[in-house]
Automatic annotation (TrEMBL):
Keywords: Hydrolase. InterPro entries: Cof, HAD-like_sf, HAD-SF_hydro_IIB, HAD_sf. Pfam families: Hydrolase_3. The keyword Coiled coil does not apply. It comes from the Bacteria. It comes from Paenibacillus thalictri. This is Cof-type HAD-IIB family hydrolase. PANTHER family: PHOSPHATASE YKRA-RELATED, PHOSPHOSERINE PHOSPHATASE. GO terms for cellular component: cytosol.
Length: 280
């Protein structure tokens, strides 16, 4: 991945690809602003390619992707890339690793949520942490695993356990990409993967430079992606850490932040004049 300083856009450069985190960026549970839909439509009209770029699974993103008319999805924190739901690139865990984790989880009473390309799987359906997460952010109902041997390629796992318990699965010096989004929930992806890596693979596939891409995000797992592209945009509801890494900070999701950024910075990127202000 190119260094952020080398990918920054200059005046006159055009955005050719726009990537969007989902939760907290495009939508808040079932709320997706009409202004966001209109902004995405305008981007497509001007020839900008669109992609989702999320920690969720391809399976979960189908309805949203189709509703927004988006062909591409970088999912599982960069471990899977799909075109209209079909796998184009995938970096899956070794099957033996998944089997070992499920065996260990059975001993310890932990719940694993497993992301495949076409379905989600879970080893314990009545886990209170999973149900709390489902209520808070809207997980779809996964299939109960009957046998680890029947589980397909898995691109991301979520283990519902505390930080003090996670070493049972990742060791003390893990070779994984980790994103702890609750004190009791941890994303685990294959080593070397993150949203920036997945987005770079998509850019290469589409023959687009990282400097010609814009990315929107609000969470810690958006950090690498925001730094890697020419126009990294943090939502107003993002944390201070991400805002410091972003080129621009827009308004919050509930204040039409995507529409504001698209009009103020993306459509202005090809216009003559001075570089627009960094903050909303």
């Amino acid at each position: 991945m190119q260094n952020r300083l080398n990918t920054r856009m200059g005046v006159g450069d055009l955005v050719k690809l726009a990537a969007f985190d989902v939760d907290g960026t495009l939508r808040d549970r079932d709320y997706l602003p009409d202004s966001t839909r209109e902004a995405l439509f305008k981007l497509k009209e001007t020839g900008v390619s669109l992609t989702l770029c999320t920690g969720r699974s391809e399976y979960e993103m189908k309805e949203l992707r189709e509703a927004l008319g988006i062909d591409w999805a970088v999912t599982c924190n960069g471990s899977h890339i799909g075109y209209r739901g079909q796998t184009v690139f995938g970096n899956a865990f070794p099957a033996e690793t998944i089997r070992e984790w499920l065996e260990e989880a059975e001993k310890r009473g932990h719940t694993f949520l497993l992301y495949g390309a076409e379905q989600m799987f879970i080893n314990r359906q009545d886990d209170p942490y999973f149900r709390q997460a489902q209520q808070e952010i809207g997980f779809m109902e996964p299939l109960l695993i009957e046998s680890a041997e029947q589980v397909p390629a898995i691109y991301q796992c979520i283990v519902f356990c505390s930080e003090t318990e996670e070493s049972a699965y990742i060791g003390n010096e893990p070779d994984y990409y980790l994103h702890r989004w609750r004190t009791w929930a941890l994303d685990i992806n294959p080593g070397g993967m993150n949203k920036a890596v997945g987005l770079q693979k998509l850019c290469e596939h589409l023959n687009i430079e990282a400097a010609e891409a814009a990315a929107f995000g609000d969470g810690l797992n958006d950090m690498e992606m925001i730094e890697a592209v020419g126009m990294g945009i943090a939502m107003g509801n993002a944390g201070d850490g991400l805002k410091q890494k972003a080129r621009f900070v827009t308004k919050s999701l509930h204040e039409d932040g995507i529409s504001y950024a698209v009009e103020k910075w993306i459509f202005a990127a090809g216009s003559a004049g001075s570089d627009p202000a960094r903050r909303a």
